[in-house]
Amino acid sequence: xxxxxxxxxxxxxxxxxxxxxxxxxxxxxxxxxxxxxxxxxxxxxxxxxxxxxxxxxxxxxxxxxxxxxxxxxxxxxxxxxxxxxxxxxxxxxxxxxxxxxxxxxxxxxxxxxxxxxxx
Amino acid sequence: xxxxxxxxxxxxxxxxxxxxxxxxxxxxxxxxxxxxxxxxxxxxxxxxxxxxxxxxxxxxxxxxxxxxxxxxxxxxxxxxxxxxxxxxxxxxxxxxxxxxxxxxxxxxxxxxxxxxxxxxxxxxxxxxxxxxxxxxxxxxxxxxxxxxxxxxxxxxxxxx
Lengths: 119, 160
Fold this sequence. Notes:
The complex is a heterodimer of chains A (about 120) and B (about 160).
Chain A: H1 2-5, E1 13-14, E2 17-23, E3 26-32, E4 41-46, E5 49-54, E6 64-68, E7 74-80, E8 91-95, E9 98-104
Parallel strand pairs in A: 1-7
Antiparallel strand pairs in A: 2-3, 3-9, 4-5, 5-7, 8-9
Chain B: H1 20-34, E1 54-59, E2 63-69, E3 78-83, E4 86-93, E5 105-109, E6 114-121, E7 126-136, E8 139-146
C-alpha cells in the first residue's frame, strides 16, 4: 500500500503566451516567460524541433498567502520547424521576461520575383 | 482498502481555498492525459485570459510582499502608488511591433497588451512609508514593511 501513497514529485510545465509574426524574410516569436533568467533558459534544436525550456526559480516564501494567482511551474514550448527556416541562424534575446526568437528564412523560401528576359 | 486523504501533490504549502487556478491547471492536465493529448490546448489555457497582471501577495510578521507578472513591460510605463493600505499598480503594457506591410502575417497572439490598473488591499498593519519595489525579468516585486507597533517584539524576562 505504501507505494500507492507515495507523493509524486513532478514539476508542472506551462506553455508560455506567444506572439508569432512573419515579416519579410524572418519569423519573430515572442514568448512571455516572466521570472526566467538567462541562465535558466535553454533553447535547443533537435532535427526539425525547436524546444524552449525556461526554469523558474521558486521564491522561498515564509508567511501566509493572501492572494495567489501567478501560475507555478516551468515554461516549455516545442515548435516544429520545416526546411524554410535557417536553423543555423536562429537568434535569441531575453528582455524583461520576454524571449524573442528570430528565425530567418532560407533564401529558397522567400518570395521573389522572377525577371523575364526579353530575347 | 483504506480511505486515504488526498495529498497535495505539487505544492503542499498552498492553502486550499486560494487554489482555484492551481486546480484548473491540474484539471486541464488530467483531461489531456485522459485523452492522450500532448499539451493539446496549445493556448495557455481557457481560464487564463485577462487584461491585468496576475499577482501574488504574501504576508509575514515583518512585511507584506506583492509579486506581479508583467512580461515585456517597460519600467517607465509603470506607476505605483500607495494610499494607507491600498496599493495600486497602473501602467501600460505596450504591444510589440506590428506587421506593417501587407505581406506580414501574424500567426498567433496570445499576449495581452494595453492599459491596466489593479488595486490590492493590504492588511492595515502595513506602513505606507516603507515600500521597496524592484522590476526584474518581467516580475515586479514590492515589499511593504509593517508598522513598528505591529511587528512582533521579544520581551526579555528578568529573573530575580
